């Protein structure tokens, strides 16, 4: 059974990737994921704000010691800046790339133009096989236009592409007014892959304590439908590779994404729920399905259910919507 896959120019042993999660926070976690069979690993995201906060904290500690007495400087390591997050992250990239025989992909969430480019270059130099741009930015200012939000994505991509030579993926959120158009614009701007979709972690409200509380929920299979829809629509419209993420729980979810047209399928929630070894279950299930259906390679089934290239996409989707409503009405019966 041939599971070999190409993703933004990288040759992979299969289409299952481990997306960014706490599992890739350590070298041991990276090794466990690789041993379980994933074809590539996206490391946890490096956030520029976190980097700046650590640098500022270290600077305050140094200043405090200098104001006390010279000997107090010995309490703080020489070259304290080296203890901040970027070196730790870059060290993980370097060690992981040397420890596993699969591509290690860095994930970056910058906040300033200089942050995006300088960290991206450092990640490449540390051995990252590719860089995933985790553009996690919700426009809370109601005066920010949709076009400004889209342009920010394009500007970030172009800056990073001008800085590095490794492939660059863009992880998109699902809340654009025209997802198809921003995908096409990013594709034309040189994105090597589009990752659909980013899940924005939205806070909740505690009505007893009268506080806003963080809420981190793992994804469920029902959430995959939106990403599958857009992957199906974009399969024959973009040059960039398409990565599916969100809602992968069973082998059937991997199969569905591939049939819709995904080049690779990423999982985090299922691996967090069941452990890194669960990647073997997903891959074995994919292989068993292919054998049962008579497919010898992943390439034979990829995109079989994608929207045809020459179809009227809007009409195609509307027809599917109407069919779904009729089927729902028929199954529910009269009220």
From TrEMBL:
InterPro entries: Aldolase_TIM (IPR013785), DHO_dehydrogenase (IPR050074), Dihydroorotate_DH_1_2 (IPR012135), Dihydroorotate_DH_cat (IPR005720). Residues 3-290 form the Dihydroorotate dehydrogenase catalytic domain. Its cofactor is FMN. One of its GO terms (cellular component) is cytoplasm. Keywords: Flavoprotein, FMN, Oxidoreductase, Pyrimidine biosynthesis. PANTHER family: DIHYDROOROTATE DEHYDROGENASE (QUINONE), MITOCHONDRIAL-RELATED, SLL0744 PROTEIN. This is Dihydroorotate dehydrogenase-like protein. It comes from Actinocrinis puniceicyclus.
């Amino acid at each position: 059974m041939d599971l070999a896959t190409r993703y933004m120019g990288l040759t992979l042993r299969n289409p299952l990737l481990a997306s960014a999660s706490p599992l890739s926070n350590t070298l041991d976690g990276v090794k466990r994921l690789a041993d379980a069979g994933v074809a590539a690993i996206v490391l946890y995201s490096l956030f520029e704000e976190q980097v700046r906060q650590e640098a500022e904290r270290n600077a305050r500690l140094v200043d405090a010691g200098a104001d006390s007495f010279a000997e107090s400087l010995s309490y703080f390591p020489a070259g304290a800046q080296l203890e901040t997050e970027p070196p730790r992250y870059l060290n993980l990239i370097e060690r992981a790339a040397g420890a596993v025989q699969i591509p290690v992909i860095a994930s970056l969430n910058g906040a300033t133009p200089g942050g995006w480019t300088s960290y991206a270059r450092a990640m490449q130099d540390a051995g990252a096989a590719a860089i995933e741009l985790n553009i996690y930015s919700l426009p809370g200012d109601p005066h920010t236009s949709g076009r400004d939000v889209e342009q920010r994505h394009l500007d970030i991509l172009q800056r990073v592409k001008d800085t590095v030579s490794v492939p660059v993926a863009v992880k998109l959120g699902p809340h654009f007014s025209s997802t198809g158009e921003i995908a096409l614009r990013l594709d034309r701007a040189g994105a090597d892959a589009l990752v659909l979709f980013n899940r924005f972690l939205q806070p909740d409200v505690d009505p007893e304590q009268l506080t806003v509380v963080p809420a981190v929920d793992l994804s469920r299979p029902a959430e995959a439908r939106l990403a599958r829809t857009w992957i199906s629509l974009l399969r024959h419209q973009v040059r960039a590779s398409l990565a599916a993420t969100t809602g992968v729980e069973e082998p059937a979810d991997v199969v569905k994404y591939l049939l819709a047209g995904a080049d690779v399928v990423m999982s985090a929630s299922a691996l967090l729920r069941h452990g890194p070894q669960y990647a073997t279950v997903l891959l074995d299930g994919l292989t068993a399905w292919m054998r049962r259906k008579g497919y010898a390679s992943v390439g034979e089934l990829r995109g079989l259910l994608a929207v045809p290239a020459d179809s009227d996409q809007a009409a195609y989707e509307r027809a599917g919507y109407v069919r779904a409503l009729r089927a729902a009405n028929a199954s529910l019966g009269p009220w």
